[in-house]
Write a structure and sequence with these properties.
Elements (H helix, E strand, L loop, with lengths): L1 H17 L6 H13 L12 E5 L2 H15 L2 E2 L3 E3 L8 E8 L2 E8 L12 E4 L3 H10 L3 E9 L2 E8 L3 E8 L13 E6 L4 H12 L2 E10 L9 E9 L2 E7 L13 E4 L3 H10 L3 E8 L3 E7 L5 E7 L3
Parallel strand pairs: 1-5, 6-9, 10-13, 14-17
Antiparallel strand pairs: 1-6, 2-4, 3-4, 4-5, 7-8, 8-9, 10-14, 11-12, 12-13, 15-16, 16-17
């Protein structure tokens, strides 16, 4: 650890001495690698990374049924719990599908802040260590660690305002591997995009698999434009950072997860039959054929198949 800090410090000194720009791509890659390896890996696996969906109690069962009818899978036993550090009551159910895991909440009381603003829950190997890594890699801790009925939780915020819940179970869960790994879809501004990517990659021990400066704008509902798209993969799963100016036609920016399926047409047929609405019709880009769907209760998701030109 000490030798690595010495090496990084020496590199900075050399940059300052010879006037080499320390923010160059190669230096950032080196520095990010040093930061990543200097922290512990706390990820467990993508099947334990859950999309958080908040619906009203009246829509709860309809949403769960529609999700399973669309993607397949099964739901764990439903219950009513307190899952926040302050008094509250929510219906809660875990839905295990082959294309991603979903935690569904139907609050019977008002939702305490900032719950409901987090998009994802990441299972970690050790909560205290995960909080230390989050802070060390640039995240803020919005909700400090608290106990829930089956473990411990916290909420962190990445640069750019992206909220994530971290969780740890007293009894380690055991879920089957996913058939396809969903993507966490994160919209960030150009001002904070690099800070977000650096922080998340360092925390997750992930890697940037693609950084496209001129991705086709049709992917965000703007067919005449381009935008920057960064794809990251780690043991937490896939994450796509969509870097935009915020001029987004509805429903873009509202979808938090992209689900990969083998046959988009069949999946959309199942979705519509189960009460979901197709908000954006299927469209093709160089990487995928995609659509945007709204499930009963209001949850919006991107659904896609991978294509090859």
């Amino acid at each position: 650890m000490l030798s690595r800090k010495i090496i990084v410090g020496a590199a900075i000194a050399i940059c300052l001495t010879i006037g080499f720009p320390c923010e160059s791509q190669h230096f950032n890659t080196f520095a990010l690698s040093a930061q990543t390896t200097a922290t512990a890996s706390v990820a467990v696996g993508p099947q334990y990374d859950t999309a958080h969906v908040y619906v009203t109690p009246q829509d709860f069962d309809r949403f769960v049924a529609s999700l399973i009818a669309t993607f397949g899978g099964k739901a764990a036993k439903q219950g009513v719990f307190t899952v926040t550090p302050t008094p509250s009551s929510t219906m809660s159910q875990l839905v295990l599908t082959p294309v991603g895991t979903v935690s569904v909440f139907g609050f019977k009381t008002p939702v305490p802040y900032p719950f409901g603003l987090e998009r994802t829950g990441y299972l970690v190997t050790d909560m205290d260590e995960a909080i230390g890594v989050a802070r060390a890699t640039g995240a803020d801790v919005l909700v400090t660690v608290f106990n829930d009925p089956i473990g411990r939780d916290a909420i962190i915020q990445w640069p750019g305002g992206v909220n994530t819940q971290l969780y740890w179970h007293t009894t380690a869960p055991s879920f089957a591997p996913l058939q396809t790994i969903p993507e966490n879809r994160v919209y960030v501004s150009p001002d904070r995009a690099d800070a977000f990517v650096k922080s998340f990659v360092a925390f997750s021990h992930g890697r940037i698999v693609a950084d496209e400066a001129r991705a086709p704008g049709v992917e965000i509902g703007r067919t005449a434009d381009t935008y920057r798209r960064v794809r990251i993969e780690s043991k937490f799963g896939k994450l796509t950072a969509l870097v935009t100016d915020g001029h987004l036609p509805y429903p873009y920016g509202r979808e938090t997860t992209g689900y990969e399926v083998t046959n988009l047409t069949e999946t959309l047929t199942k979705a519509k039959a189960s009460g979901a609405d197709v908000l954006v019709a299927p469209h093709k880009t160089g990487e995928r054929e995609a659509a945007v769907v709204q499930f009963p209760g209001g949850y919006i998701a991107e659904i896609h198949t991978v294509t090859k030109d």
